[in-house]
Design a protein that fits this description.
about 25% helix; D-amino Acid Aminotransferase, Chain A, domain 1; about 30% strand; seven-stranded antiparallel β-sheet; D-amino Acid Aminotransferase, Chain A, domain 2; about 300 residues; nine-stranded mixed β-sheet
């Protein structure tokens, strides 16, 4: 069994390194000897991932500089992904939390987008890579106007495992699409709409909130949204279908970096009246309030 562990006092303290907030991307490696910054090429988290050992990962953001939303849930998913790939993993969470706090203190961004990567299929205890970039929110008007998505017949080989091997092919496929396509929704051969390349998918159908439960990655934001939605709407846990798209009243995607983002066009079908609907707006307001109350520092 692979275990990430070690003496907590071996972590570097940020005052031992000169902070360089001007750098766009920072990558750190946590080993048994402590935390150190490593030189990895890339102008985005995805590009950096292509230069790191393959493995499982989670991507998350901070709020108010150093506050995380459900950090333990992200770490749970890292362990679950490794287990699904037959690489049992136990994280030393206290040590990893301290490393995250040190990495944020060193980079000094107002808010950050992070990726934690755990290499797999290694004989010894795996290193942990922490990549930190300044968080750049999507254009605020997209929440007001909504975005367009298209469907594609594709699915993850192991939907319960979030692996770096999915990053490159999904980026390549998305790059080949029209510029106004914001997200790709993955669809099964029998017409079930599962999830987006980088998000989970929800649709309101006749007032019910419908989202897939089988064959999808269990997103952290998805879980929060479901918990909140169950107090507000009737929730139906099953995949929306391609043939139901004309009956969608509203639709949206969720992710850690975007929260709740409305979809107003799928393929060429306008959803509802072509604007973010009242249920989605209400749910987003509830989610945003929850984030302010629930986000916590790593340590």
């Amino acid at each position: 069994m692979q275990t990430v562990q070690g003496a907590a006092n071996t972590l570097f303290r940020c005052h031992t390194m000169k902070s360089d907030p001007g750098a766009r991307i920072h990558t750190f490696r946590l080993t048994g000897d402590g935390l150190s910054e490593v030189d990895v090429a890339g102008s985005s988290l995805d590009e950096v991932s292509q230069h790191l050992p393959g493995g499982t990962y989670t991507t998350l953001r901070t709020f108010e500089k150093d506050r995380f939303l459900h950090l333990d849930a992200h770490l749970d998913r890292l362990e679950a992904s490794a287990h699904a790939l037959h690489n049992p993993l136990i994280l030393d969470r206290s040590r990893l939390r301290e490393a995250l706090a040190d990495a944020l203190a060193h980079t000094g961004f107002a808010e950050s987008r992070l990726r934690i990567t755990i290499p797999l299929n290694v004989k010894d205890t795996p290193d942990v890579y922490i990549t930190v970039a300044p968080f750049t929110a999507i254009a605020p008007e997209l929440y007001e106007t909504g975005v367009r998505a298209v469907t594609m017949l594709i699915a993850r080989a192991l939907p319960r495992a979030k692996t770096t091997g999915f990053i490159a092919p999904s980026r390549s496929l998305k790059a080949s699409l029209p510029h106004d396509v914001y997200e790709v929704l993955m669809v099964t051969g029998d017409g079930q709409i599962l999830e987006g390349f980088t998000s989970n998918f929800f649709a309101f159908i006749q007032g019910r909130l419908v989202t897939a439960v089988e064959g999808v990655l269990e997103g952290i934001t998805r879980s929060i949204v479901l918990e909140l939605a169950e107090t507000m709407f009737t929730v139906e846990l099953r995949a929306p279908r391609l043939g139901e798209i004309p009956q969608f009243d509203e639709a949206f995607i969720t992710s850690s970096s975007r929260g709740i983002l409305p979809i107003v066009v799928i393929n060429e079908q306008v959803i509802g009246d072509g604007r973010p609907g009242p249920r989605t707006r209400r749910l987003r307001q509830t989610y945003d309030t929850y984030v302010k109350q629930a986000a916590r520092p790593a340590i």
